[in-house]
Specification:
5-stranded parallel beta sheet; single chain; Tscrpt_reg_LuxR_C; about 5% strand; mainly alpha; 45 helices; two-stranded antiparallel sheet; about 900 residues; AAA family ATPase
């Protein structure tokens, strides 16, 4: 049923044609969904013919249920004709892609290719091909593709806009066929209308007896495959066939039974070959015949397939064998006994010498009982899959190995290993189930400790109660006594993180730190620095800052350590120290393709950039973090990115965007509503209120961070929020509340070690002081080193100038107000610049209108691309860094140049002020 024989599918054909015909100008993707036999494959065949007639490159693959456990099997199907081009890719991409296909030496776990590097390599490979002709990827039965391949296709689908690259996938309507690309357009096929069904019957089965025709029409319910196949079955076997396709059965079952009714007439050797074919995960003819011979105990030749070919059940060429429809495979398997299916898997396992992964899967399927030897083979499968960047396949292998385990200790290790992979993949439901299973077994001290640490990774429970923290501490102490101080430190790090989320009291926080400091680990261990910063950000601030400075001077820390240290610095309010670590971490994580951790790191980098009003760093970090957090289903970090975006928008004076984005953060972030997130949201709302000149609303929002009865209460973030609270406090009651909060902070922090903490406290003391002592506090605040806090310094200048003007010291007021105005202007902080201008006008001095800066003309992603291009990177190099195609980068630059009024890359540095 193809071409002009697609009866009643005019609208659907037009949709598919639009994808194909538009390829020379733009890329697009489409997911075709519907019941078995509804016409998905026919639409794909039509698209393939149309694309090839237009001179396009067509790459095809078809999902097979037996292949779902073979990592990147579907991707290899799609791209195997292009492997000669892989050598043209950057070496790191070529190695990742060849490793994914098992065509390179296995990687060690430390250097295993990351999924996103494999996906980028695929994008680059296809991008090279599109330079010669548009490329159409066509995938049938996508629900049976292996998960790593589906994830790669989702990655591609989100990036095809600027490429002449099309993706057409077809899958069952009752399955999630494309989980990695939830926003891709869908085309759902419905049953044919009666007129189209009649036309199809006339074309494929003319001369049907009226009674049979009515029966077929009723049974088929508008399903094209049923309209074609049911008449054959009914004619072939009369009453028996009619029973097989009883109207009482679901349509899919009717079709399977229709195909099964033809199997009964086949010779036994043909049925055995079909059973092996249905059980096999490759379809190689020689392999199938060899296994069928082993199953039969005698040689089986290709001639045994002639009856099946004649019945329209299979198609065969000199290399491969395939079923005419996936339901034929289902019918073959459904018609076989359990013993026959187990024997077929056993025959394939016996045949597959030199293919250890496939052999292990078939051995596992061939036994109906635990077998430790097979479980160990699956352990090896999992290790090899991880080494190829296919963590999803490794997870499935360990889960199956768990079911086959005979040794209790092996079962525990496999459950915990599988749960760890589940967390890595973001599949928290599966991880939680695996951990629950492990919890029911007899566990040793270290196994119990690892179980608890993995449960921390679920982040579903943000319980900061005393019992939870006690459990983490005591389990860590037992793990240390059992000889694993690294595991103990990871547990204490988790406890410290919970302390930072919501303060459990100083005594318990000090206990976490004391336990960590007793461990035999170096004092500059990143996890130890993190633990001190998270549990005692005020009390141990001096120690944390000292160690951060030493590590900064010493260098040599790895990427994971840089991410940990950058986060630790933000917890201690050392944002000036955080930026260097976080930039180093982001660059390394991007290069390794570890985009899940990269999203977290970019959020911390963006929030750090807010404090220095570093638009060139912060805006691209926000945009990239939001994109990655959405792609990786990381709601907590998407909330963090939105908070940073809203803060930048407030600083810029784009209050409509700021309110919309913080509303999204607050509304969609409820599922990950840690007290720290809630506090950041209220601080951001306070900043928006100040930008809008609504001091009462700003005070109301920020005060929630100081109110112990409020869910947004967060004592450690009060050192950040105190500046906003002081600026928002205008009435006597508000000033009294703010002064009391300030006094509590001064008492608890002392002099404060983090520079930002000292600056914020000094700023608040100056703004909240009575007139008699204000001058002294302003002098003290100005004496602080604010070289890395230009926004805070400008706000202090504005506050001082306003105070002087109100005291009628107008001539003195003009100097700090001018400095504030120029500082705000250079920072691009429009609401505060306008406020400084108003104060200057009140002091008798006018101000010129501020023009927009060049970076302000670009979107955050355009700014990031422009910066990289200004640094001399090619489109291909930029694409490698940002996981975009070179063509997409070129399209962005095409829009960037006219915005900046330039015509070449060489002019970018001057326009962006990068000289």
């Amino acid at each position: 049923m193809s071409g002009s024989k697609l009866f009643g599918r005019d609208e659907e054909l037009a949709t598919v044609d639009e994808v194909v015909d538009g390829l020379p100008e733009r890329g697009s993707a489409l997911l075709i969904q519907g019941a078995p036999g509804i016409g998905k494959s026919a639409l794909l065949d039509h698209a393939v013919t149309r694309a090839r007639n237009s001179g396009f490159t067509v790459l095809k693959a078809s999902g097979v249920q037996a292949e779902t456990h073979l990592p990147f099997a579907g991707l290899h199907q799609l791209t195997h004709t292009m492997t000669d081009r892989v050598s043209r890719l950057p070496p790191v991409q070529a190695d990742a892609l060849l490793g994914a296909f098992g065509m390179a030496a296995p990687s060690s776990s430390a250097s295993a290719p990351q999924f996103f590097m494999i996906a980028l390599a695929t994008l680059s490979l296809l991008g090279e091909a599109t330079a010669e002709a548009p490329v159409l990827l066509v995938v049938d039965d996508a629900q049976w593709l292996d998960r790593p391949t589906l994830d790669v296709l989702g990655f591609l689908a989100r990036r095809v806009g600027a490429e002449p690259l099309g993706l057409l996938l077809a899958g069952h309507e009752d399955r999630t066929a494309w989980p990695g690309a939830p926003d891709i357009p869908e085309l759902r096929l419905t049953p044919l209308q009666p007129a189209a069904a009649d036309a199809l019957l006339d074309a494929r089965n003319p001369g049907l007896a009226p009674a049979v025709r009515r029966l077929v029409a009723d049974m088929s319910a508008g399903n094209p495959l049923a309209l074609i196949e049911l008449p054959i079955t009914l004619r072939a076997d009369g009453v028996a066939a009619e029973s097989a396709v009883s109207p009482a059965l679901p349509l899919t079952t009717r079709l399977e039974r229709a195909f099964a009714s033809r199997l009964a007439d086949l010779p036994s050797d043909a049925r055995q070959v079909l059973l092996i074919t249905a059980t096999d995960d490759d379809g190689a003819l020689t392999e199938v015949l060899t296994a069928a011979s082993a199953l039969a105990g005698a040689e089986v030749s290709v001639r045994s397939l002639e009856p099946a070919i004649a019945a329209g059940l299979v198609s065969v060429d000199e290399f491969r064998i395939g079923f005419s429809h996936p339901l034929v495979r289902s019918a073959v398997l459904g018609s076989a006994t359990l013993a026959d299916r187990l024997a077929a898997h056993g025959a394939l396992a016996h045949t597959l010498h030199g293919q250890p992964d496939r052999q292990a899967w078939h051995r596992a399927a061939a036994i109906g009982r635990p077998d430790e030897a097979v479980a160990r083979q699956l352990d090896q499968v999992a290790r090899r899959a991880s080494g190829r960047g296919a963590a999803a396949v490794a997870l499935t292998a360990l889960e199956r190995a768990t079911a086959l385990s005979e040794v209790p200790s092996g079962r525990v290790a496999r459950l915990l290993g599988a749960a760890e992979l589940g967390l890595e993949l973001g599949r928290t439901d599966r991880a939680a189930s695996l951990l629950h299973q492990a919890d029911q077994l007899e566990l040793g001290v270290l196994e119990r400790a690892r179980l608890l640490q993995l449960r921390e990774g679920l982040e579903v429970d943000v319980d900061t109660s005393t019992p939870r923290l006690h459990l983490l501490i005591t389990t860590a102490e037992r793990a240390a006594e059992a000889g694993d101080p690294e595991l103990a430190l990871r547990l204490l790090r988790s406890a410290a993180r919970r302390c930072w989320w919501s303060d459990p009291g100083r005594e318990l926080r000090e206990r976490v730190v004391a336990a960590a400091e007793r461990l035999p680990v170096p004092e500059l261990h990143p996890d130890l620095v993190y633990t001190l910063a998270a549990a005692t950000p005020v009390e141990r601030a001096a120690t944390v800052l000292d160690r951060l400075e030493r590590l900064e001077r010493q260098g040599g820390y790895d990427i994971q350590a840089a991410a940990t240290l950058g986060t630790a610095a933000t917890m201690a309010n050392a944002y000036d120290r955080a930026t260097g670590f976080l930039r180093h971490a982001a660059a390394g994580l991007r290069g390794q393709g570890r985009l899940g951790l990269l999203a977290q790191t970019l959020v911390s980098l963006a929030l750090s950039a807010v404090h220095t009003v570093d638009w060139e760093t912060g805006l691209p970090a926000v945009a990239e973090a939001m994109r990655l957090a959405e792609e990786n289903a990381q709601p907590r970090w998407l909330t963090g990115a939105r908070i940073a975006k809203a803060q930048f928008a407030a600083l810029h004076g784009d209050l409509e965007t700021a309110l919309a984005v913080i509303g999204e953060a607050e509304g969609r972030g409820l599922s990950v509503a840690h007290p720290s997130n809630l506090a950041f949201i209220q601080i951001t709302r306070g900043l928006i209120g100040l930008a809008a000149g609504d001091h009462a609303e700003a005070f109301h929002c920020v005060w929630r961070v100081f109110d112990p009865a409020d869910p947004a209460y967060h004592p450690f973030l009060q050192t950040i929020a105190i500046a906003e609270l002081a600026e928002a406090a205008t009435g006597d009651d508000q000033r009294a509340m703010a002064k009391a909060a300030l006094q509590r902070l001064v008492t608890s922090t002392g002099a404060g070690e983090a520079q930002l903490t000292r600056i914020n406290l000094g700023f608040a003391q100056a703004l909240l002081a009575d007139d008699e002592h204000a001058e002294e506090h302003f002098r003290s605040a100005f004496a602080l080193d604010m070289s890395r806090a230009p926004f805070a310094r400008a706000r202090l200048m504005l506050a001082h100038g306003a105070w002087l003007r109100r005291r009628r010291r107008v001539m003195e007021a003009r100097t700090p107000l001018r400095i504030a105005r120029e500082s705000f202007a250079s920072l691009g902080v429009e609401p505060w610049r306008e406020r400084a201008c108003q104060e200057l006008r009140s002091a008798g001095e006018g101000s010129k209108r501020q023009s927009r800066s060049d970076w302000d003309l670009l979107t955050p992603q355009e700014l990031q691309i422009a910066q990289l291009a200004a640094d001399g990177l090619s489109n291909k190099e930029i694409g490698q860094q940002l996981y975009l195609s070179p063509r997409t980068v070129g399209a962005h630059l095409y829009r960037i140049f006219p915005k900046l009024g330039i015509t070449s890359r060489g002019q970018l540095r001057d326009k962006l002020g990068m000289n």
